[in-house]
Amino acid sequence: MVKQQALTVLVPIIESKVDALDALLTEIGNDIEGNSHVRFRLTPSTHFARWAILDNRPEFGPWLYFSACYDGDFTSYMHQLTSNIGEGMEPIWLATDGYRPGTCSDAAAFANFLQRYSVTPSIFLCAFPGLSVNDILGNAARREIVDRYLDSDPLSIPRIPEKNAGAAKSFDSVANDRFDKIVNWLNGIEPGERNPNTNVVTDARLLEIEDKPAVVQNQMTIVSKVKPGFKAWLLIRLFMIIGAIGDKPTPRGQLSGLSTIHFARWVLVNGGRHLLFESNYDGSWENYIDDFGDHASTGMNAVWGCCTGFPAGGSLDIESFKQVIRAHQYPTHVFYSAYPDLTVENIASDRDLSRTGLIAGVPSGRS
Questions:
Q1: Distances in whole angstroms, Cα of residue 239 to Cα of each of 102, 266, 363
Q2: How confident is the model at residue 172 (pLDDT cuts 50, 70, 90)?
């Protein structure tokens, strides 16, 4: 069983190279599998990866944000990146401050470079701990073979009973009414209150994300300003509490009561003055935010209530909550998924089918 890791890197961009870098990353992102620069498909340990330019001067930036969810240890992953896509990454990292030419081709040097600008997530969530990229793709391939054997009639496959989630509980499931009231009181949230309508200027690339209702997988990158003083102190303590509770997934991959999140992370950046949130999830932007309000409102109020601009009525004031997200979300230039056509539910079903023995001995068809 492998362990999934989170790599979170923020490197200053040389200001004169921001536009050229934007164009290069956009070119890669527009053809994630076939571009001539970087193909993460050549790094078999990568679940998800992204590059984005974060720029909110004078508060922060311009930063190059690079993140990855990967299998195994950091050193091995560095060897995989430098050996398989190192040369293609060179033009990207050359646009950043402090990068020395040729570093991408040297695993030890590249590891040192990334570690210099890496930040450890306060919370890192994984829907299927121990399930590697190879496991997920192998299970999916075997299921496809079985489907073909059964004339593509999945209803002919015996139903796999769901396992009891047992004692695994999400952050919200242990948050009783009293805790909810404490969170609201600490963050000045009045349930039922509505913010006045405001006009938020949204990047056109973000609107494209919202306008894709039929997308299988989606992504989100948000950077919010943390309120100074007591709220900054409170946020750190809340992360400690959430980490101690251990928001573990159910057997069906649910996180915080949501069955659409593959990986997510909260990271304090810029000396703790800003909170970065990244999510790799299934379905449309609208449904995802609605799910937050329906299933994880206490957690959202606890965390983002410590940030500026949060709705007075909390995340249950869903339209105001969406406005806040639009105001702080950044477009992702490059978004890679090792299994872009699989939802969390697909992965859970494929894994359960593999465990039944119904397809024992059926090869995955992968080398």
A1: 38, 9, 43
A2: very low
Contact yes or no for 230/238 (Cβ under 8 A): no
Residue 204 pLDDT: 66
pTM here is 0.86
Closest by Cα among 280, 279, 2, 261 to 134: 2
What are the residue boundaries of the structural domains of the chain, listed by start? Answer: 4-118, 124-133+164-333
Instruction: Report how far apart the first and last C-alpha atoms of the chain are (Å, whole number).
Output: 19
Which parts of 97-225 fold into alpha helices (H)?
Answer: 107-116, 133-149, 177-186, 204-210
Cβ partners under 8 Å of residue 96, min gap 6: 11, 12, 13, 14, 64
- The yes-or-no verdict on residue 10 having pLDDT over 70 is yes
| Tens-place pLDDT, residues 339-365 | 999 999 999 999 988 887 655 555 554
Backbone φ, ψ for residue 32 (5° rounding): -65, -30
183, 187, 192, 198: CA torsion to nearest 10: -140
* Phi, psi of 226, rounded to the nearest 5 degrees: -80, 135
CATH code 3.30.70 for 4-118: yes
| Residue pLDDT, tens place only, 97-116 | 999 999 999 999 999 999 99
With CA atoms as reference, report the closest residue to 52 among 64, 68, 40: 64
What is the DSSP code (8-state) at residue 163? P
Q: By percentage, how much of the chain surpasses pLDDT 70?
A: 81
Q: Is pLDDT of 15 > 70?
A: yes
> Which CA distances in Å does 321 have to 243, 315, 318, 354?
24, 5, 5, 40
What burial letters (b/e) apply to 77-101, b meaning 16+ CB within 10 Å? Answer: bbebbbebbbebbbebbbbbeebee
The contacts of residue 279 (CB under 8 Å, 6+ apart) are 219, 220, 261, 263, 264, 288
Please list the residues that pair with 41 across neighbouring strands. Answer: none
